Amino acid sequence: MNVNKAKTKKSSESCALGILHPSEVEFNTTRKPVHVAMFSGGASSAYVAYYIVQKYGKENCALFFTDTLWEDVDNYRFMEEVAEYIGLDITYRIDGRTPEEVFFDTHFLGNSRMAKCSEELKVRQTLIYLEELRDEHNLEPILYFGIGPHEQHRAVNLQAFYEHNPIEPIATRFPMIETFTGDIDTKEVIQNEWKIKLPRMYDLGFSHANCAGRCVRGGLGHYALLYKVWPEQFKEQEEMEERFRAKFNKDVSILKRNGGPFPLKTYREQLERDGVEKFLNEKDDTVPCICSYS
Ligand code: SF4
Q1: Measuring CA to CA, how many Å separate 238 from each of 106, 140, 210, 273?
Q2: What is the CA(191)–ligand 1 centre distance, in A?
């Protein structure tokens, strides 16, 4: 891989925003930089990948995706079409287990508060890849995320994570916040200029497209939508949850209601009894999925 000789130094443009703070860390390195688009399979991260290829050249960039083996089939179609459009092959990293297998291995059912599936299948695989870039290729990764201004808190968390968890700090950049002025309608650009159809999960109303609507951090409204559009998928999650509860004899669940366990079986019975529509906007105390880079 050819790379340019630019030094990697934390951007301070974010300072003006007063929210995404510039790092104190100087990324002083003799390694050659490689610009890594953290591809989530969504529109914004696709656009950010396009942007860095235009700016740095594809020989200096990577398009990175961690596969949980739960992804929707149409996400793969979208990702491959984007990769072809921008001229950069996707670097896939795959643990080999599904989130369900992680839950059983760790004896812990993922939920809105803690999702070991994300730690094992995405974060860990990402850190291994980044250390390989340094150790085996003498490259210094700079990570680019598609997170927008409305989710700055997630950008702050990612920045802090990559400054403190790798062996050496890793630079993070958020072009949708730090670089672009004004709103960019990435979906419109991708559909109308690139002529690439967006992942079908957008049309179905899912707020993020990871793990085919089964994300354990999705929350009550998200699972109501899953029940509405893909009831068989909901049923598979319900059966997985029941198997877990029986095997480990624990009163645990993916969803929570009023601070306590709320099994999918109970929720489905409620949806069938009362109708799904009134639950689609149901608020809960869940947090946004950390696997989605937008
Ligand atoms: S998207 Fe959700 S279910 Fe899938 S790996 Fe991430 S946290 Fe787990």
Answers
A1: 19, 43, 18, 17
A2: 26
